Amino acid sequence: MTTTTETADTSATGARPDSLDVVPHWIAGAAFPGSSTRTGDVFDPALGTVTKRVALADDADVAAAVGAATAAFPAWRDLSLARRQAVMFRFRELLDARKGELAEIITSEHGKVLSDALGEISRGQEVVEFATGLAHHLKGEFSENVSTGVDVYSLRQPLGVVGVISPFNFPAMVPMWFFPIAIAAGNTVVLKPSEKDPSAAVWIGELFREAGLPDGVFNVLQGDKVAVDGLLEHPEVRSISFVGSTPIAQYIYETAAKHGKRVQALGGAKNHMLVLPDADLDLVADSAVNAGFGSAGERCMAISVVVAVEPVADALIDRVKQRIAGLTIGDGRRSCDMGPLVTRQHRDKVASYIDIALADGADVVVDGRDVHPDGDPDGFWLGPTLIDRVPTSSRVYTEEIFGPVLSVVRVASYEEGVALINAGEFGNGTAIFTNDGGAARRFQNEVQVGMIGVNVPIPVPVATFSFGGWGQSLFGDTKAHGAEGVKFFTQQKAVTARWLDPSHGGVDLGFPQN
Ligand code: NAD
C-alpha cells in the first residue's frame, strides 16, 4: 500500500523523533500527501504502539479532493451504465482475490481478528455485487397515455459529488455500504474514513485504479473534524452518508441539512436480546457470546444487553460463563477468538464501566480486567465481561459502551421485556430467542427497532435489503444499501411528453387536465 515518509515531526499529538510512514489521501487516482502539516497517530492495538501516522486534511486538501471529484463527474455520469457496471465487476473480482491483504491491514490498525476482518470484507463485497446489477434498479417508470396523446416517465440520475464519512469499527464494510451504489449510479465519491484506521480506504483506492475506474471518481480524504466540516460546507458536495456515534450523527444531520444537502446519518446503538423461557438456552448462550464479544464488542449490531425473562437467567448465565472461559484473547494475527480494543483511551473508558457497575450494585460475574492475552503486554486488552442484575438506571445500561461488556437484566414477562426495549433511546437492532412463533411474530410487530432478529443475534440485512435503525440510531429517512441506497444516491426526474398530432392545438389558459 502507498505511504509517504514524513521528514519533519508534525504530529498533532506531540513530538516524536522518528520518521513513521504517513498514510496519505487518495485523490484523482493517486496518493496525495496534502498541504496540511497536521498528522494523527495510528496504533497497532495488539502491540500498543504507534506504527504510522495519518495526514489530517486542511481546507486546501478538502478543496483538492472535492475538486477532483467534481472534475471527474461529467464524464463518469455520461459513461454508459454497462461500462460503469463493468468496472464494478472488475473491482469485485480483484477484491475477492486479494481480500487477505485488506484483512491484514484492518487487523493491524483496528485489532479485530483476521477471520472477523475477512467477514466484514465479505459483507461489504455483497454491496459491490449488488452494484454490479444496478441497471435493474435504475430502471424508471413509464405510463402511456395519461392524458390524450401524453406519456409520463421517470428517470433516476446521479447527484454529483457525494461524501461518505465512516467510523473506526468497520473500515472496509461501512464505506462499502455506500460507495459501490453511489459510483455505479454515476456519482463521484469523497470518502473520509476514521483517522484511527485510515489505510483500508487507500488500499481500496488503489484497487479501483487497477479495476479501471477513471481518476477522481473515488477519492479518500484523510482527517478529523476539519475534513468533515469541509465536506459538510462545500457547495459541490451534494449528499452526506455518515456512520458513527449518535452525538456526531446528529451534528452531521443538522449541519449537512443547513447547507442544503441530502443526508443519512447512522448513529450509535444499545442492542437488546430478549430471551423467553422456552428458548434453546445453548443456542442463546452461543449467540450471546458471539454477538456480545465478537470484534471485542465494537460492532454497532453487537448485543450489549441480554433481557432474560425469568426463570431463565441463572441457567443462561452459567452457560455464558462456561463459554467465556473457553475464549482466547490475543493478537488478531494469532488465531485468537477476540482481539484488543482500538485505542488505550477507548479500552480504559470501556473498563471504567466495570467500576460503575460495581458502584451501582450490579453483580460482575466475569471481570475482563483479569485477562491473560496471547499478545504483547502493551496491547489494549480487555477480556469479555459479564455483568448480571444491571440496574436500568445505571450508566452501564443507559450508555453505549462499545466494548466486550455484556449486561444481563432480569424481567418477569415478555411484556416487561418489550417495554424495556421500547423505552431505550436507540433503535438499531434487537433479537428475540424463543421457540414460540406467535411470540416472535408479536415481537416483530411491537418492538420499536429498525432491524430485528428471530433466533438470529446480529440481524444485519443482506445487501439487497437496507440497513439502518430507528430512533437515535438513524437521522434522516433513508437507510444504507438495497433499494433505499439506490434512492439516496439518485434524484428522480419526471418527464411529461407529447408528440403533437395534427388534431391537437389551440389556445387554452386552463390548468392542464386529463
Ligand atoms: P465517531 O462518531 O467518533 O466518528 C465517526 C466519524 O466522525 C469519523 O470519521 C470521525 O473522524 C468523525 N468525527 C468524530 N468526531 C467528530 C466531530 N466532532 N465533528 C465532525 N466529525 C467527527 O464514531 P467512532 O468512534 O469512529 O465509531 C463508533 C460509533 O459508530 C459507535 O457509536 C457505533 O455504534 C457507531 N456505528 C454505528 C453504525 C450503524 O450502522 N448505526 C455502524 C458502525 C458504527
From TrEMBL:
For the Aldehyde dehydrogenase domain, which residue ranges apply?
Answer: 36-495
GO molecular function terms listed in the Swiss-Prot or TrEMBL record: methylmalonate-semialdehyde dehydrogenase (acylating, NAD) activity
**Which InterPro entries does the UniProt record give?**
Ald_DH/histidinol_DH, Ald_DH_C, Ald_DH_CS_CYS, Ald_DH_N, Aldehyde_DH_dom, MeMal-semiAld_DH
Alphabetical list of Pfam families matching this protein: Aldedh (PF00171)
* Organism domain of life: Bacteria
- For the protein in the UniProt heading, the enzyme class is oxidoreductase
The EC code for this enzyme is 1.2.1.27
Q: In its keyword annotation, does this UniProt entry include NAD?
A: yes
Give the record's keywords alphabetically.
NAD, Oxidoreductase
Q: Name one GO biological process term.
A: thymine catabolic process
NCBIfam families this protein is in? Answer: MMSDH
The protein's name is methylmalonate-semialdehyde dehydrogenase (CoA acylating)
Q: What is the lineage of its organism?
A: Bacteria, Bacillati, Actinomycetota, Actinomycetes, Micrococcales
